[in-house]
Structure formats: C-alpha cells, structure tokens
C-alpha cells in the first residue's frame, strides 16, 4: 500500500509546484490567458511599475521646477481643441522667449504621456503644428518614437499580464499574424503603424510580448508614424478650422493611409504570388 500513498504525495507536490510557478513574477503566463477579474499585476510587478513611474515623475517634476514662470496666465496641458485655441498665443509667446526650455518641457511631457499610456498626445501633436508649423513634424516623430520605445521596454518588464487581461483575443490574433511573417516582419509592422488597423497603444504594449525585435519595432515606428504625424501637424496649422479630433481622420484621409500602408506590404504580396505560380 506504500506505492499508492507515494503517488498521492507526489501528485500533491506537483500540483503545489505548478501553483507556485504560476504565482511567480518571473513565470510566463500563456498568451491570452484571462485572470478571472483579478488585478493583473503581482506585488513584484506592481512595485516595478510604480518605481519606474516614480522615477519618470520625479525627473519631469525637476524639469518643471527649472522652467521660468509664465507671465501670461495659467498654462496647462491641452485636453481639447478649445484648450489649444486658448493656449496657442500664450504658449507661442512663452516658446519664443524660452525656446530651449520650452522644447525640453514639451518633449519630456510628451514622452512621459506616451510611456505611461496617458491620453492626450494627439493634442500635443496638434500643438507642435500650431506653434512650429510643418517643422513640428520632426518634434512629433522624435517624441512619439522615444515614448513608444520607453513603453516597449516597460511592457517587456511587466506588460504581459496587463495585455493578456485587457486584450486576450486581440493578443492571440497578433501573435498568430506575427508568426506568419518571418523575414517580412518589418513590412507588416510598417503597415500596422501607417494604418489604424490596430491601436498604437496596443502595438507598443504587445510587441515585446510576441517577441518582435526592438530594431524592427523602432524602424517601423520611426517611418510608420510619419504620415499620421504629418496629417496631425498640418491640422495644427489650421487649428481655427478644426472642430473635433474626429475631423482629423475622415474617409479621404483613412483611404490615403491605407494606400500608403499597402505599399509597405506589397513585397510580401508579390513574394506569395511568385511562390504560388
């Protein structure tokens, strides 16, 4: 009778080890696994996320402390088109008097918002167009790429449980599509960046989870966000005619973006055609 007892003991030990492995912060949970409504981060992961947020926040606060006080009324982050219209002239004066410090504060704020997925970067992009004209596109592309890269590495640390909790089915789909691409992964990522097929927030968070190399992610981001950034900056130039953020992407604009995006996946389509022939 000793053998059955040993089997029971070993089985219980194995189940306990599996539970411990699932609870470990270093264990990889299956992609798409739901967490039954529980908070997705373990204590260790939450500590890491909070520590990174605290470091970024402290740095941003120190930058704000070094900036000269505004003498033209209360300056604030724009959260709507009406905010932008009211702040445009005041921020323009401030940027002309303190150009270096203004750009430092602008870039730090944009990257912070992009890294921690804080809504409102679209208004920051419009602001670049309103204040700097078409040259603002370089500022927007730099900040958007830097913020997306920071978000990529943050997600590499603690993003898996969050993405699996928020978008389990979308994550499975994304992983399947990435697995199909092989050596044409850059073309596919360019298509996703140029077109609104998947939200940029999801791409930033999910890319390290599905093992997209950083150099592919970086190149696709730098090149792929240029068309949308150009559209946003141009809209910032004509801020008085803009009624809503929804006006940025009408049917004509979306059609152009998809046509540009289609060019990026054309080599993949041609390769498949040659294989089938």
Automatic annotation (TrEMBL):
Chain ranges passing through the membrane: 48-70, 118-142, 214-233, 253-270
The answer to whether keyword Acetylation applies is no
Superkingdom assignment: Eukaryota
Residues forming the VTT domain are 118-236
A Pfam family assignment: VTT_dom
Q: Does the keyword Thylakoid apply?
A: no
Enumerate the UniProt keywords alphabetically.
Membrane, Transmembrane, Transmembrane helix
Subcellular compartments: Membrane
Set out the biological process GO terms recorded for this chain's protein: autophagosome assembly
Q: What is its main location?
A: membrane
Per its UniProt record, what InterPro entries does this chain match? TM41A/B, VTT_dom
Q: How does it sit in the membrane?
A: Multi-pass membrane protein
> Per the record, what is one GO cellular component?
endoplasmic reticulum
| Protein name per the record | VTT domain-containing protein
């Amino acid at each position: 009778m000793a053998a059955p007892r040993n089997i029971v003991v070993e089985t219980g030990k194995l189940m306990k080890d599996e539970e411990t492995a699932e609870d470990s912060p270093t264990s990889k949970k299956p992609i798409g696994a739901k967490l039954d409504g529980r908070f997705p981060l373990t204590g260790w992961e939450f500590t890491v996320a909070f520590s990174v947020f605290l470091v970024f926040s402290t740095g941003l606060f120190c930058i704000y402390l070094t900036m000269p006080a505004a003498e033209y009324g209360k300056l604030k982050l724009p959260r709507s088109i009406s905010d932008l219209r009211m702040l445009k002239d005041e921020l323009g004066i401030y940027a002309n008097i303190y150009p270096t410090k203004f750009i430092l504060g602008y870039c730090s704020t944009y990257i912070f918002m992009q890294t921690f997925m804080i809504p409102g970067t679209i208004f920051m992009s419009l602001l670049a167009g309103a204040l700097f004209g078409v040259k603002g596109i370089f500022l927007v592309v730099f900040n958007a790429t830097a913020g997306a890269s920071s978000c990529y590495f943050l997600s590499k640390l603690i993003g898996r449980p969050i993405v699996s909790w928020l978008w389990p089915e979308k994550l499975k789909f994304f992983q399947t599509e990435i697995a199909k691409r092989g050596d044409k992964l850059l073309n596919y990522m360019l298509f996703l960046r140029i077109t609104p097929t998947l939200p940029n927030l999801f791409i930033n968070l999910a890319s390290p989870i599905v093992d997209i190399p950083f150099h592919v992610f970086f190149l696709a981001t730098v090149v792929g966000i240029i068309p949308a950034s150009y559209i946003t900056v141009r809209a910032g130039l004509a801020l008085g005619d803009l009624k809503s953020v929804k006006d940025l992407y009408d049917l004509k604009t979306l059609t152009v973006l998809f046509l540009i995006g289609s060019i990026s996946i054309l080599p993949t389509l041609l390769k498949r055609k040659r294989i089938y022939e």
